[in-house]
Specification:
Blueprint lengths: L1 H11 L2 H19 L4 H12 L5 H17 L3 H18 L2 H15 L5 H22 L1 H5 L2
Length: about 140
């Protein structure tokens, strides 16, 4: 389904559709296999954006890349990706994104035993974030 959406977005020249599909495929690859190839989807999404500002999507890609790298145990690279995502969230005034990335950075730096508590809190936060973004209008957040 995501591959089809990517092709459709490319064919229609809709960068946000194409990149959203690539982000989804990277996230799925990371969650299901935990292997490095997930990174290639995020890199392709950044290539598709090219010179477009698309700060919201770039931040989203950097955040997903950070999650992938954290799962692979590459904490330094994950921290750099999270910090880039945090910077983008601050640039566009995305307080929810800023909070989520800050929590992920904190979880990355915490000892492994205490991470599960943070993960439970993050799930609750993400649900609130999704509701908040729907109320504000997803398109308007992406256009920043």
């Amino acid at each position: 389904m995501a591959e089809e959406t990517e092709r459709c977005g490319r064919k229609l020249g809709q960068l946000h559709i194409e990149t959203s599909a690539l982000i989804a495929m990277g996230s799925m690859a990371s969650s299901l296999s935990g292997k490095a190839p997930a990174e290639s989807y995020f890199e392709r999404a950044l290539e598709v954006l090219g010179a477009q500002p698309a700060r919201f999507q770039r931040g989203w890609i950097e955040w997903e890349m950070g999650n992938t790298l954290a799962r692979l145990g590459q904490t330094e690279r994950a921290a750099r990706s999270f910090e880039a995502a945090l910077s983008r969230s601050r640039e566009i005034g995305d307080a929810t994104g800023e909070a989520i990335v800050t929590l992920d950075l904190a979880a990355l730096r915490r000892p492994r035993a205490s991470r599960s508590v943070c993960s439970i809190w993050c799930v609750a936060c993400c649900r609130r974030c999704a509701r908040s973004r729907r109320r504000r209008g997803w398109r308007s957040a992406r256009a920043r």
